[in-house]
Amino acid sequence: MARLSRELEQAYRRTSYTAETPRGVITLRIGEPCPELAELMREHGAKTAAYLTAMNPRSEILSDEENAKRLAELDALLQSEGWMFFKGKAIADTGDWPDEDSRLIIGMDVEDGALELGYCLGQKAIVVVSGEDPSPQLYELPENKDRPLSPSDYQRIHLVSQTSIAQTLIAAIFGLLFVCFAYVIWFNSTGVSSIHHMVGAIVMGLAALLCGFLFWCSLLDTYTYYILRASHR
Questions:
Q1: What is the pLDDT of residues 121-153, one digit of tens each?
Q2: How does DSSP classify residue 149?
């Protein structure tokens, strides 16, 4: 894991992380308890929360247009997956870094959710709250040597995962069924109806071959997903 420089770590710690909630604007500071956030999490039965942005990946300032696009895609991603989130801003105390529009996400798992998302979006660290400790903590992320994903890219990769795994299983099940039907029909073809049985067996065999083709295509998509995911860990 690439360690944050002392200057960058101090910059994260000298930042106020605000969020506009139904209880009003709450402000998070790393290492400092936030009773308002703790109450908000209890109200929604959540034990974790994450605060992150899609702006300025790798701490490299992007244009306003690119940042706005990435943020809109992050909102669409969170909404499509049903996460409860609140808009906010990360505001540096010294004012030497531009304010970053960010999102406070309630209930997102830290290990398989917030950390993975923050890493894929090219962030060097994110702020999380986990367990009984209401104090926000700074989580450093491994250095992402690949091109940071946009939120829409991240969403597409996960969509490929969900659909490809389902297609693989369906193709495998139907392929096996067609093979079994072809076997039964072929070896029970006797008498006058034997030709019809043989034709039926051939049709079932062709259907099994088609399912096999779909199986391997879906398996390839699933493999591609895991390769992409591994390359962004």
A1: 889 999 999 876 778 999 888 776 665 656 655
A2: P
